[in-house]
Amino acid sequence: MDGFGSAPALYWRGRTHGYDAFLDLIAQWEARLADLGIGPGSVCAFCGDYSPNVIALVFALMKARAVLVPLTPAIEPEIPRFLDISGAEHLLRFDENDSWNHGRLTPSARPALFSRLDESGTPGLVVFTSGSTGIPKGILHDCDRVMRKFVQPRAGWSTVLFLLMDHFGGFNTLLGTFAYGGVGVCPESRSPQAVCAAIAAARATLLPTTPTFLNLLSASRAYVGHDLSSLKLITYGTEMMAEATLQAVRVMFPQAELKQTYGLSESGVLRSKSDANDSLWVKIGGPGFETKVVDDILWVRSEANMLGYLNVESPFDAEGWYCTGDHVEVKGEYLRFLGRKSEIISVGGQKVFPSEVESVLLEAENVVEAAVYAIPHPLLGKAVAARITLNTPEDPDALFRRLRDHCKARLQKYKVPMRVQIVEADAQLSQRFKKTRPLDGESS
Question: What does the DSSP assignment read for 86-130?
């Protein structure tokens, strides 16, 4: 970063900060951390969104060889539990104006896994994920191992920092942006209007995002009122992409390359290459990563594997392989993701992947978003149901008949939803702009 001089590094609130000014801000945070008693091995949680101070703090903490615990206001109710799991000793909070305050914490215990970082003298990163039980798991990474993939020089991008930093994909994007001399573009919020405004104002070239947000962007038509011609690459991941959404994005951004990404909080973000702009087939891997498919399930082994979970047993086998739970089809070097093993609906013993039904529903007129899930059935065990978000209001009974006919013409009978519920768009979104599906059997 020191070699990029005064080149633009960060766009925030209508102002561009150069790398020289950004490095000065990092140095200021190094001095502050020393005054606060935050040094090697200190477990420091910080809560905020992307801003000059927050991003500078990230690099200052890594230079101080501390353990980083990034948090965001979106997960405020979970923060006390996350602080406890991580054994956080410090908490820095940032407001919307980039002002901050510091508090000392008294953890109940220091996680034993931190001894690995103490031995290596390297900075750590803790991110959280939820398992099938809903119990959050604290994932510990060695930051040096995470950063190895960024050593080889590459072209820098003016990147919209859309993916939240408290998730591995967002942290990976943050590191990649500055490692290659790119510009981190901070949107005012993650609404379609705000993201489009940030792209236009900063002349952003890269938008890493989710299929759900792209679907929302298409429905909102916020892109119509902004000059988004600077956008050259859109990467999408973290969930399944519907064919209908992919085609809509091609129409919205004909000048942009579309690239599917794949990553895991446990094993890092793999290099990827989409077969074509209009294809959901993707090749994944790259230096430091290995993949294999066993019984149609993807397994990954990585040099950047996490050190382990802080509060549950390690998921890796004896040879370091991790079962992702993702069902895939294989075509030579390329894979097509079908859905998570945990999401499969068994209808009378026959498998239904929710993403397949959702893709068909999104092709129907007036449907903005669709989330498919299982409901109990007295004879089949399970049946398919769907929550639908509409562009304009429609009679529920007429909608149900229309969607049933639409699906019957495109799907086998057991895949056709037996129940349809109309919901608002917010009910379909998680805090990370991913699709949320009701729990198995949840009443609608």
Answer: HT-SEEEEE-TTS-EEEEE---S---GGGHHHHHHT--EEEEEEE
Q: What is the pTM of this model?
A: 0.86
Kind and range of the H or E element at 257?
strand 257-260
CA–CA dist 168, 141 (Å, integer): 10
Helix (H) or strand (E) segment spanning residue 139: strand 136-142
CA–CA gap between residue 339 and residue 400 (Å, rounded): 25
pLDDT number for residue 14: 94
Comparing C-alpha atoms, which of 179, 172, 200, 176 is closest to residue 188? 200
pLDDT in tens, 49-59: 999 999 999 99
- Domain span including residue 116: 2-147
Pairing of strands 90-94, 43-47: parallel
Cross-strand pairs, 435: 429
Q: Is residue 380 part of a domain?
A: yes
pLDDT tens-place string over residues 125-147: 999 986 444 678 999 999 999 99
Geometric angle at alpha carbon 8, from 35 and 227, rounded to 5°: 130
Mapped onto helix, strand or coil, the DSSP state of residue 216 is helix
The predicted structure's pLDDT at residue 443: 43
CATH number, domain with residue 101: 3.40.50.12780
Q: Residue with structure tokens 């996490």?
A: 306
How many residues are listed for the chain in this entry?
A: 444
